[in-house]
Design brief:
alpha/beta; Rossmann fold; Arc Repressor Mutant, subunit A; 30 strands
Length: about 950
């Protein structure tokens, strides 16, 4: 081979494939294809890591098709299995693979949960040469009588998007299924795994190649990526818009920045971290900027809706598409020239994957912009950009020997073989990397437990040597096919305002379980609510007059910020502190941007001003080398740059110790840079930290876990996967305490513990932090004050705790100011109900500033009627109709009656009546009662007007 001069890897492919490539205008291989094709043609297992648009699918499939046509007979059977984690991807993959397969005379089909019965029958009778499927459907194929026979012909397996599978139980399930497939085929088959940028490729390879040798081809370094971090400045116009929209000026400035960026781009993807954020962002963009063509895409939307918006973006109908991780994978949405990340992506791997959706053709530059919402996020985004550019990516956390997946795989083996020795099932599982340490005792204990349940899907011999199908197999089939997916069913409760009947939003089940009982107050969607009851699976709430004691809510699981990222943020803080003390914040901003050249000095100066304020306050700042315990009022903020999971672990353990030592209940919250405790004192928290240094952290956490709603949900999810609880059951219906107690000491409980320690907490990270404290590598500083320092206040705002420390009168002032801003910015349509020949528009604030009274220029009447909202357009149409007929009357009797009564009020009370008409849904009779008590426009007037609005809404909905 070394004597032959080849111009490209394509020359190694057979003539019919080269002709098909040329016919499609593909003349040169991409870097991924150039490196991978020779290795795959030689029969090696390959992990191919490349950005989107580098032709990974072709790099894998073309040489495999060449090998299949060269080495195998043309007999029936599935020869190539292509596994993709998303059914949506399968739509694109079938078309991409078909032309390749047709070039060598092979057929292609897709098989997943949505495949029709007729198509399934066709595949069973006439199997395709290439089958595109999902990890879950592979579980079905392995137990299907006809398809099992067809899969014995398999020569190769391609696993797409393995970075999406490796760190959850889907990947573990697939790893075990591949071992079952090897037993079925009875000989070696080649495996090619495709991945976007991923941390620790060696570990990824171990999971999917299960001990067989493999080669890593990584061409991500050939992709250029340009990243930018913005911290938008709030303008006077933003403040004005925010007042009229009753929102925060920072939100307006960020949305204005998004619109500006989108207008300068051809096609953008706008990523958020949660579904609720995507919906809120899409709604606000559509409402505030109606000329912007925007849609939302996330996993909770129906398949048809997702397909529709994908096509709309691809065809150019949309300016931007707001998405969660649902569009991180390679779904074809056409050319995207820019990715916007709204708020921090929290992990470098996510940043690379999302930005990689732009400029995805070879040779193009991937461009991404992060819009930070606060100073912590700004520094976090800088750290993530540096890590993304340097390839410092988070390592995946592979679940180790999950017992729920093990059970499902054993039952699958029983459906294949009816009965088998337990040691054979164990051997098959242990060949899969995630199960390599599974002991016979652990598997036997799980099988014995399941055997003892009333709806057991298997039968275990008394000596534990043989596991078999039970005499009645209905439960076996039900369990296996209802639990093909390891993805947990996430129960979310709609939150409904008792007074208005309006849907406010959704709360996760774990929060409802942990915190809500009649009378408890909580912060949600920027307001304080009182929990009343659960009714028809809805959380019924009412507005709270007094916010004191309200607890923060949380919705959905945002990505955790890793400890290393948080420590780097702490390092940047330390750098800023040193430079600010020496030369001022502008010099600090210049120094930061020299090292992190992803933002402007102006944005950096604004974002870092909080650290200058912190210096001026005299309160030390948490950095990578110091933890600060800051006490004020009955709060303690532990400033620790330790990451989400470490701080969550610290928060739970500190709360537990304080409750044990004082007997008082403690509320806690955390983010990657602090833990917030209330009520607490610096002395008590200091003692708790000292005790933690001497404790067995895991044993202590195991005492805390059973009392948390988060853990109860984990228990329920495992119980569902083991077939012990219906997939649709709710923890609330089953009782939090009872479900945890019911499974204590069982494999269900054991697996829930393992899952919690892996996904929800970081004991090793906390242990490292405490060791650094003990060694003096990290200094612990205590400080007390009357008010929170600037960085503590930022933490209170982030956690929504800040509403709790506002006195009721202060909160009332804020709400009153918001209502005044809304009413003063309302545009009124003023008509003359005496002649119906004149109308005009005027803003309430302009009306109040005017020194002259309003009068109809046509007839001179002062009995004018003002309308807003739905009434305004009806009034305009009525005047225009009256002008056409020349008659001073309108056929809309409801409108005419309201106009007449409002006119009488205006004639008697003047401008004050016109201002009152801006109220939402208040009848003229109620306005008359208000005006009799409040004839001047002052705070008491606005306060009563808002109260009347609330009463009107309540009456209308009762």
């Amino acid at each position: 081979m070394s004597e032959v001069s080849l111009t490209s890897a394509f020359d190694l492919l057979p003539p019919e494939i080269r002709s098909a490539l040329a016919a499609r205008g593909i003349v040169e291989p991409t870097p991924a294809q150039e490196e991978a094709i020779p290795l795959i043609l030689s029969g090696e297992n390959v992990l191919l890591i490349a950005p989107t648009g580098y032709g990974k699918t072709e790099a894998a499939v073309l040489p495999l098709l060449a090998r299949i046509t060269r080495e195998s007979s043309r007999g029936e059977g599935i020869k190539l299995l292509y596994i993709s984690p998303l059914r949506a991807l399968n739509r694109d993959l079938k078309d991409r693979i078909r032309w390749m397969a047709q070039s060598v005379g092979l057929s292609v089909a897709v098989r997943h949960g949505d495949t029709t019965q007729s198509e399934r029958r066709r595949q069973a009778v006439q199997p395709p040469d290439v089958l595109v499927t999902t990890p879950e459907t592979l579980q079905v194929l392995l137990v299907g009588r006809r398809l099992r026979a067809h899969m014995k012909a398999i020569r190769a397996v391609v696993i797409d998007e393995v970075h999406e599978l490796v760190d959850d139980k889907r990947g573990v399930q697939l790893s075990a299924a591949l071992e079952r497939l090897k037993e079925l085929v009875g000989r070696h088959f080649q495996v090619v795994a495709l991945s976007a940028t991923v941390g620790n490729p060696e570990l990824v390879g171990k999971v999917f190649f299960d001990g067989e040798p493999f080669r890593i081809v990584d061409v991500t370094a050939t992709k250029e990526m340009k990243l930018k971090v913005l911290y938008p400045e709030v303008t006077d116009e933003d403040v004005e818009v925010a007042s009229s929209a009753a929102t925060d000026p920072g939100v307006v400035s960020r949305l204005r920045t998004i619109v500006s960026i989108v207008s300068e781009s051809e096609s953008t993807l706008l990523f958020t971290n949660t579904r609720s954020a995507a919906e809120a962002l899409g709604h606000r963009l559509s409402r505030w900027f109606p000329r912007l063509a925007v849609a939302v895409h996330h996993s909770s939307l129906s398949r048809d809706v997702r397909i529709e918006v994908e096509k709309a973006l691809k065809s150019g109908e949309l300016d931007t598409l707001v998405s969660t991780s649902s569009l991180e994978l390679g779904i074809d949405v056409g050319h995207v020239d820019l990715v916007i990340q709204y708020m921090s992506p929290r992990q470098a791997t996510r940043l690379v994957q999302r930005v990689g959706r732009s400029g995805h053709r070879v040779g193009e530059v991937s461009r991404g912009v992060i819009i930070a919402s606060d100073p912590d996020e700004f520094l976090e985004a800088l750290a993530l950009c540096r890590r993304a550019k340097s390839g410092e990516l988070e390592e995946p956390k592979v679940p180790q020997k999950p017992l729920d997946v093990a059970l499902h795989q054993v039952v699958g083996m029983l459906l294949e073989y009816r009965s088998l020795p337990t040691r054979r099932a164990l051997a098959t599982l242990r060949r899969a990397y995630p199960f390599r340490t599974l002991s016979g005792e652990e598997l036997l204990r799980t099988l014995r437990y399941i055997h003892s349940t009333w709806n057991r899907p298997l039968w275990l011999s008394d000596d534990g040597e043989i596991v078999s199908l039970p005499a009645r197999r209905e439960n076996t089939y039900r369990y296996y096919f209802e639990n093909l997916s390891t993805i947990p069913d996430e129960r979310r409760y709609p939150v409904v305002d008792e007074a208005s009947g309006m849907l406010i939003g959704y709360l996760d089940e774990a929060f409802v379980l942990d915190h809500l009982y009649p009378g408890v107050k909580f912060v949600f969607k920027g307001a304080v609510w009182v929990f009343r009851r659960i009714e028809a699976n809805r959380v019924i709430v009412s507005r709270a007059d007094d916010p004191t004691g309200a607890i923060p809510s949380w919705v959905g699981e945002d990505l955790p910020v890793p400890m290393d990222v948080a420590l780097e943020v702490g390092r940047i803080r330390r750098l800023v502190l040193e430079e600010t003390r020496r030369s001022g914040v502008k010099a600090a901003a210049r120094r930061v941007i020299e090292e992190y050249p992803f933002a402007s000095i102006e944005d950096a100066t604004r974002a870092l001003a909080i650290i200058e304020d912190q210096v001026n306050s005299g309160v030390p700042t948490g950095t990578d080398r110091q933890i600060v315990l800051e006490g004020f009022s009955n709060y303690v903020v532990v400033h620790a740059c330790a990451g989400t999971l470490v701080n969550r672990t610290l928060s739970r353990l500190l709360s537990h110790i304080i409750v044990e030592s004082t007997g008082l209940g403690v509320l806690s919250n955390e983010d990657p840079y602090r833990v917030i405790l209330r009520p607490a004192s610096v002395e008590v928290v200091m003692q708790a930290i000292d005790r933690l240094k001497a404790e067995d952290l895991e044993s202590l956490l195991l005492k805390v876990l059973p009392r948390t709603g988060r853990f109860a949900v984990r228990v329920l999810q495992v119980a569902k996967r083991m077939g012990l609880v219906s997939r649709w059951a709710s923890v609330r219906e089953l009782s939090l305490k009872k479900i945890v107690e019911a499974y204590e000491g069982t494999p269900v409980y054991e697996e829930a513990i393992s899952e919690s320690l892996l996904k929800d907490y970081d004991i090793q990270g906390l242990r490292t932090l405490l060791e650094r404290l003990s060694s003096g590598e990290i200094e612990l500083i205590t400080v007390k004050g009357r008010e929170p320092s600037p960085i503590a206040w930022l933490g209170l705002q982030r956690s929504q705790f800040y509403l709790e420390i506002l006195p009721p009168e202060r909160l009332e002032q804020i709400l009153l100011r918001t209502a005044k801003a809304r009413i003063l910015s309302t545009d009124l349509v003023v008509v003359c109900p005496s002649c119906w020949s004149w109308w005009t528009t005027i803003r309430v604030s302009t009306l109040l500033e005017s020194t002259q009274g309003l009068r109809c220029p046509a007839c001179g009447s002062e009995a004018l009627a003002a309308f807003s909202g739905k009434w305004a357009q009806r009034a305009i149409e009525a005047v225009e109709a009256a002008r056409e007929t020349g008659r001073p009357s309108v056929p809309d009797s409801e409108l005419a009656d309201r106009a007449f009564r409002l006119g009488l009020l205006t004639k008697r009370f003047g401008k004050t009546a016109l201002v009152a008409s801006a109220a939402r849904g208040v009848d003229p009779e109620d306005l008359r009662d208000l005006l009799l008590k409040h004839s001047t426009v002052d705070d008491d007037f606005f306060r009563e007007l808002v109260r009347r609005e609330s009463e009107a809404i309540r009456r209308r909905l009762l």
